[in-house]
Amino acid sequence: MPGSQGSWSPLEKGKALARTVRVSSACEKRILRGHRWIFSNEVEERLKEFLPGEWVTVVSGSGRALGVGYINPRSLIAVRLVGAPGQEPTRAFFRDRVEAAVRYRAACYPGASVCRLIFGESDGLPGLVVDRYGDVLVTQVTTAGMAAVEEDLHAVLAERLNPRAIVFRNDTGARQLEGLPLEKGVAYGSLSGPLEVDCHGLRWSVDPLDGQKTGLYLDQRDNREALRRWVQGKRVLDLFCYEGGWSLVAAAAGAAEVTGVDSSEAAVERARENARLNGLSQDVSFVRTEALDYLKRTPRGAFDVIVADPPAFAKTKSVLKQALKGYTDLNRRALLALKPEGILVTSSCSYHVSEQDFQGILLKAALAAGRRLRLLQAGGQALDHPPVLAMPETRYLKCFFVQDVPEFSRPFSASDTFKGGEES
Q1: For residue 398, which of 298, 302, 314 has the smallest C-alpha distance?
Q2: Which of 92, 194, 210, 415 lies at a 20 to 30 A Cα distance from 352?
Q3: What's the pTM?
Q4: Where is the PUA domain (predicted)?
């Protein structure tokens, strides 16, 4: 069972918060502004003396209590704050946090059966993600502190929401940084195969156990809804379409023709199944190929609307320079395939690519493609993925709707060169 591998439980009477962690003055200031992470070089105690996942009280250099959280001496983020000073990590504590998260999502999307139910630090539960797909919950624990109480969290979720099943998808690489095993399975109830859920007023086949992430990419929900106003009667290209999220929303909103492109055969098959579920098979076609290869073969000006929603190109800061070139080349090629006055919906889910970086990417790509762009909308994560204002690390998604303005653009000639990436 998940969470059972740890030898230390914070719920054992007399052990929770028994020890303190003293932090530097610079860290204290950041915490008082609302940041929730303490890095290993900011801890004054010997980290090796603590157990991974142990819950501790955090104090300033002068002994002022700053909060409670859990520690992991193996991680660069040594301590993650969870509560105010003196708060014990009891079941009642977690029950209150889950209840608050449920209330907030009900306000975001009244009556919705699909949502990101818990989003880590934003819900006061760092290291925990919970997605809701109808009567099935999918959890993901990424830290030793949350792993220590995982079974209790599952019990609280089952008590509050009475799901048919709780699936744990603890198979993300972030767990390895915490010294945790990769695992997945059913922690509560039973589940066999994919299930059908409703989102965007459409039916979706979701595979919580074997699909990517936890099933669907819910963070683009609001941006996909915003696409509806721009696609009626248009020819739409959806790059990195995964299971057809953008494609099917466009088709349902009245697009004349939609093409989805993805390199994964499994994803394309699920996208086709989702089209069949909604009676949209005649309106959407899906192609299995690399997105850049498809753009290289696409005539210039072939599409009215292009969506480019790639996976993260910059998963670490060390590859940022290379990632910026990749994003620039992708968007340059997409702009070349766009008709005059066409709309490009382009995203980056790389935290290390800032909004300023992303705007610079689009400016460089537009210059190379001989286009001039105006910004129609700058979106981010869906409402059920709210960032913490004091933690820029929790705001990762950028989604820009930009439009070519032909009166300010110039024809692109074969003699033009491009310095930001590969040219063909």
Answers
A1: 314
A2: 210
A3: 0.90
A4: 19-103
Helices then strands, each counted (H, E), the chain: 11, 19
What is the arithmetic mean of pLDDT over 344-355? Answer: 94
For residue 25, what are its two tokens? 């003055």
**What value does the mean pLDDT take over residues 235-258?**
97
* H-helix or E-strand spanning residue 260: strand 257-262
pLDDT for 408: 65
Partners of residue 20 on adjacent β-strands: 57
Residues tagged active-site: 349
Question: How far separated are the first and last CA of the chain, in Å rounded?
Answer: 52
Please check whether residue 324 lies inside any domain of the structure: yes
Strands 54-59 and 37-39: unpaired
Count: domains in the chain: 3
The tally of CA atoms less than 13 A away on the side-chain side of residue 306 is 31
Q: Which pLDDT value is given to residue 415?
A: 44
> What token pair was written down for 181?
């095993």
Instruction: Show the tokens assigned to 307.
Output: 């969506």
Q: What residues contact residue 229 under an 8 Å CB cut-off, 6+ apart?
A: 253
Query: Is 222 within 8 Å of 197 (Cβ atoms)?
Result: no
On whether both 144 and 101 belong to a single domain, the answer is yes
What CATH code is carried by the domain that includes residue 44? 2.30.130.10
Print the domain residue range for 190.
91-196
Q: Grade residue 317 by pLDDT with cuts at 50, 70 and 90.
A: confident
- Is 8 domain-assigned? no
Q: 291 and 173 in one domain?
A: no
- Does 137 map to a domain? yes
**419 in a domain, yes or no?**
no
Helix, strand, coil percentages, rounded to 5, for the chain: 35, 25, 40
Contacting residues for 1 by C-beta, under 8 A, at least 6 apart:
151, 187
Residue 292 identity: L
Angle between helices 320-336 and 355-369 (to 10 degrees): 40
How many whole angstroms separate alpha carbon 73 and alpha carbon 218?
33
Is there a single domain that holds both residue 183 and residue 272?
no
Question: What's the distance, CA 115 to chain centroid?
Answer: 12
**pLDDT of 78 strictly over 60:** yes
Residue written as tokens 């790059």? 239
Domain identity same for 294 and 390: yes
324 plus 277 within the same structural domain: yes
Whether the predicted pLDDT of 418 surpasses 80: no
DSSP-assigned letter for residue 263 = S
